[in-house]
From TrEMBL:
Gene: AP3D1
Limits of the Clathrin/coatomer adaptor adaptin-like N-terminal domain: 1-60
Homology family: Belongs to the adaptor complexes large subunit family.
Native organism: Nothobranchius furzeri (Turquoise killifish)
Alphabetical UniProt keywords: Membrane, Protein transport, Repeat, Transport
Official protein name in the record: Adaptor related protein complex 3 subunit delta 1
Length: 63
């Protein structure tokens, strides 16, 4: 993926991040960490998605 323009898939990555299945969510976070940069258009959506996920009561991060 390095060296190829994948900006067309940014919104699809955010959709995968918002999946209810943890395995899909994990893939979305990995793709975002590898493909997004500071000028990606969906950075605000990504930030809000992470904030929303971490605020849930049954969150895996709060174990």
């Amino acid at each position: 993926m390095l060296g190829y323009d994948v900006s067309w898939a940014a919104f699809n990555i955010v959709e995968v991040m918002s999946s209810s299945k943890f395995t899909y969510k994990r893939i979305g976070y990995l793709a975002a960490s590898q493909c997004f940069h500071e000028s990606t258009d969906v950075i605000m959506l990504t930030t809000n998605q992470i904030r929303k996920y971490s605020a849930r009561e049954n969150d895996i991060w709060r174990l």
